Amino acid sequence: MSMHGKKYNTVKEQVQTEVIVPIKDALDNLKKWAYAKFDESVDVDVKLGIDPSKGEQTVRGSVVLPLKKVGEVRVLVFAKGDYADQAQKAGADYIGAEDLVEKIQGGWMDFDYAIATPDLMGLVGKLAKILGPRGLLPNKKLGTVTFDIAETVKDLKRGRVFFKNDKQGFVHFSFGKVSFDSEKLYQNLVAFLKALAAAKPAASKGKFIQRATVSSTMGVGISINPDEILA
């Protein structure tokens, strides 16, 4: 059984987890009740109306958050020739092919996203067991296996973030920091929920986005109604 500290329990006493709170109020309260000594992430957990055991109902997508924390996003590109040149001009941090595969096999993982041209996926596939579990393996469905290298690098540098459902049919997503003001958090949440709604698979029937909870990294979950935005 998990144990929580006094600060967590003090906050929990103020939250009625079964009560749905207006979204802007929930974000205000989340910020007010944040107690950690670091700048916590602000997350949303969304229950989807899918059968996660069926591949055709897998939900995956991405969104460029309109307001994000300024920080360095490290992009690695598996490419050769002209595509490598395009990656360099677009601002990629690491560019290569066999040399990068060997480096990653040796334990190096100092990057946030990986892109590959389709012709190199046979080579990159050697890293599937390393990059796959970390969500870093280039993926055609996510747009990170592409010949449009320059635009993809720029997109990731602008702050594109990916999401995917888990085995329980939830999507977990970070959309800001406690240091953001409430309106900034709200705009990011709106962008995410709209992108998630657009990612509904055709095989999913009935209500797609069923319920959601927002919380800070160390905080208590606060129930919200996604329809407040999506309706």
What report would you give on this structure?
With 231 residues, this protein is an alpha/beta fold. The protein folds into 2 domains: 6-68 and 161-230, Ribosomal protein L1/L10, rRNA-binding domain (Ribulose 1,5 Bisphosphate Carboxylase/Oxygenase, 2-Layer Sandwich); 75-158, 3-Layer(aba) Sandwich (Rossmann fold), CATH 3.40.50. It has 9 helices and 9 strands. It has helices spanning 6-12, 23-33, 81-90, 98-105, 121-124, 128-131, 149-158, 182-198, 227-230; strands at 41-48, 60-64, 75-78, 94-96, 113-116, 160-164, 170-177, 209-216, 222-224. Strands 7-1-8-9 form a 4-stranded antiparallel beta sheet. Helix 2 (23-33) packs across helix 8 (182-198) and helix 3 (81-90) packs parallel to helix 7. It starts with 5 loop residues before the first helix and ends with a helix. The mean pLDDT is 89.
What is the strand arrangement across the widest sheet? Answer: 7-1-8-9
Uncertain ranges: none
Whole-number tally of structural domains:
2
- Second rung of CATH, namely the architecture of the largest domain: 2-Layer Sandwich
Q: What is the fold-level CATH name, i.e. the topology of the largest domain?
A: Ribulose 1,5 Bisphosphate Carboxylase/Oxygenase
Number of strands: 9
Treating each run of at least 4 consecutive H or I residues as one helix, how many helices?
A: 9
CATH class of the largest domain: Alpha Beta
Q: Helix share of residues?
A: 25-40%
Rg (C-alpha, Å): 20 Å
SS class: alpha/beta
Fraction of residues in β-strands: 15-25%
Q: Span from first to last CA?
A: 38 Å
Relevant CATH superfamily of the largest domain = Ribosomal protein L1/L10, rRNA-binding domain
SSE ordering: HHEEEHEHEHHHEEHEEH
Main sheet characteristics = 4 strands, antiparallel
Shape: globular
User: Roughly what is the average pLDDT, rounded to an integer?
Assistant: 89
